[in-house]
Design brief:
339 residues; Rossmann fold; 2 domains; three-stranded parallel beta sheet; 5 strands; globular; binds adenosine-5'-triphosphate; binds magnesium ion
Length: 339
Amino acid sequence: MIVVSGIQPTGKPHLGNYLGAIRNYVKLQDEAEAQDGKCLIFLADLHAISMPHDPAQLHASTLEMVATLVACGLDPAKSVLFNQAQVPAHAELQWLLMGTARMGWLNRMTQWKDKAGKNREGQSVALFGYPVLQAADVLLYQATHVPVGEDQKQHLELARDIAQKFNNDFASDDAPVFTLPDPYIPEEAARIMSLRDGARKMSKSEPSDMSRVNLTDDAETMAEKVKKAKTDPEVLPSEGAGLAERPEARNLVGIYAALAGQSVNEVLRQYGGQGFGAFKPALADLLVSVLGPIRDRFVELKDDREALDAILARGAAQAREFSRPTLDAAYSALGLVRG
Ligand code: ATP
Ligand code: MG
C-alpha cells in the first residue's frame, strides 16, 4: 500500500480540509504503517504557482500548512511529509510526461475549463499543464492509493491514461515503468458546506471568514462563527430524512456527526425536537474540544522554524530516495543520456 496525496499551501486550512482530507491522511498513515507500506503527503507548492500568487504569502502558508498537518496528527516519523519544491523529481518527471500527455486530454479537464473560464488565452501554461504535474506526483512513487475528493477523480484518470500510454510506448509489458494509480475515496468522506450558505462548500478561497471555521481560530471565534451560522427557524427532526430540504441544518448536524464519530441519526436521536438555541452551543463545545488541542499544537509549532525545516528536510530526503528508481527508469526508457 503506497499512499500519496498533496494539499496546496494556499490560504488557511479549515474544518472542511480537516474532516474531508487531513483526518483521512492520519488514518491512512496508520494503515500504511501496519501493512509495511508508505504514506507520502506533500505540500503542493509547485501547483500553487499556476495561479497568480504572492511569493511571501506562499512561503508563509507552506510553513503554516506543515505545522497544521503535524498538529492534526500526521507524524513525520510514520509519514513522509515534504514540499514539492524540495524534491526536483516532481518537476523533472512532469517534463518527461509532457511528451506523452495529449493536448486533447488536457483540454477536456473540467478544472481547467472552470478555472480558465472564457479567458483561456490569458491563463498560465502551468494551469493547463497542472494535471501532468499531478500525474508525476503520484507516478513517481508507484502510488496505489491516492486519497482525493470527487473533484480530483478526473485528474487521476488522466494520470492512469498517461501512465498507460507511457508504458505502452516506451516499456516492455513485463517491466512497466509506472503503476496505474487508483483513486481512494473513503466511505465516510465528509463534504462540509459554508456556514453562510448550505449550497456552497466551505473553502479557503471564499472571501468571508465567517463562512468557515479555520483550524487556527481560537475558542471564542469558533463559538461566535457557530452562533452566527445561517440556520432556519424549525426545530431539528428526529431522523436524517427530515433534513433533506434544509441544507444549513443538514450541514451543522453533519459537522456534529463527523466530529463526534456518530451517524446523523444518532445525533438526531439526541437533539431531535430541539431548536438551534440548544444545538449550536453543543456544536460549538464539540468543535472546541476536537479542534482546541490541534490549535494548541499548531501555535506551539508554527514559529519553530528549526523544527519545521527539519521535518521538511527529512521528508524531502526520503522522497528523493523513494522516487529515484522510477525517475531513472523514465529517463532511461525515453533514451535520454545522463552520463
Ligand atoms: P480552495 O478554495 O483554494 O480550492 P479548498 O478549501 O477547496 O481551497 P483545497 O486545498 O483545494 O482546499 O483542498 C484540500 C483538500 O481538502 C482536498 O482533499 C479537498 O478535497 C478537501 N476539501 C476542501 N474543501 C472541503 C470541504 N468543504 N469539505 C470536505 N473536504 C474538503
Ligand atoms: Mg479546492
